[in-house]
Amino acid sequence: MIAVYRPGSSLLHRMPAGLKVLGFMASALAITFTAGSVWTQPVAAVLVCAGYLVAGLGLREILRQVWAVRWVILIMLVTQFVFLPPVVASANTGRVVTIMVLAALITLTTRIPALLDATESSLAPLRRFGVNPAGVGLVLGMTITTIPVIAGFAATIREAQRARGVPVRITTFAVPLLVMSLKHSDDLADALTARGAG
Predict the structure, then answer these.
(1) Which DSSP letter does residue 128 get?
(2) Longest Cα pair distance anywhere in the chain, in angstroms?
(3) Predicted structure pTM score
(4) Secondary structure of 7-76 in HEC code, one letter for each residue
(5) Could you tell me which residues come within 8 angstroms of residue 185 by beta carbon, excluding any fewer than 6 positions away?
């Protein structure tokens, strides 16, 4: 889940948004392309923990972010266990969770308008190649606001199932989540079309 900005005066809070986005991209690529190394996951985890400590957020916030994506972790693990060895499935899931927690650190220490402005500014030179920076910024903004909504859907579904005594199963959880997410997408598309953004 993409986190909400937390005001602060740490080094990460004061760092320019563009520099943080570039750092996140470089870190995500490094984690992805060095996946075969046994040191990748431990080093990445230590760096992420250090980032949260520098930002004054603490290890409890890391656990909170991991807990927020627990259903994503569960679905990833179960689906990968079907096709991959357990060690590979766990490593793949660990890398994705590390990147998600790192992304949460960026949004915890960066105001959303600054993040969107930095994205549009960095993509401006690509306009000559047909890239629409404003469009990319709009997609990023919608993503940032939609991910917490979907996480809320997941929590609502689980609470409703727990109240009815329904056991945790991928089918009974994933199908309603998919239906609610698709309905939200349709509503969002209708709203954008009504405002002339579609």
Answers:
(1) G
(2) 57
(3) 0.68
(4) CCCCHHHHCCHHHHHHHHHHHHHHHHHCCCCCCHHHHHHHHHHHHHHHCCCCHHHHHHHHHHCHHHHHHH
(5) none
Question: Distance between CA 22 and CA 5 in Å, rounded?
Answer: 18
Distance between CA atoms of residues 71 and 114, nearest Å: 30
| Alpha-carbon span 18 to 137, nearest angstrom | 13
Task: Tell me if 54 sits within 8 A of 12, measured CB to CB.
Answer: yes
Q: What is the mean pLDDT of each run of 10 residues along the chain (198 residues)?
A: 74 88 85 80 88 89 86 84 86 87 88 82 82 76 70 82 78 81 79 62
Please tell me the distance from the alpha carbon of residue 112 to that of residue 196, in angstroms, as a whole number. Answer: 23
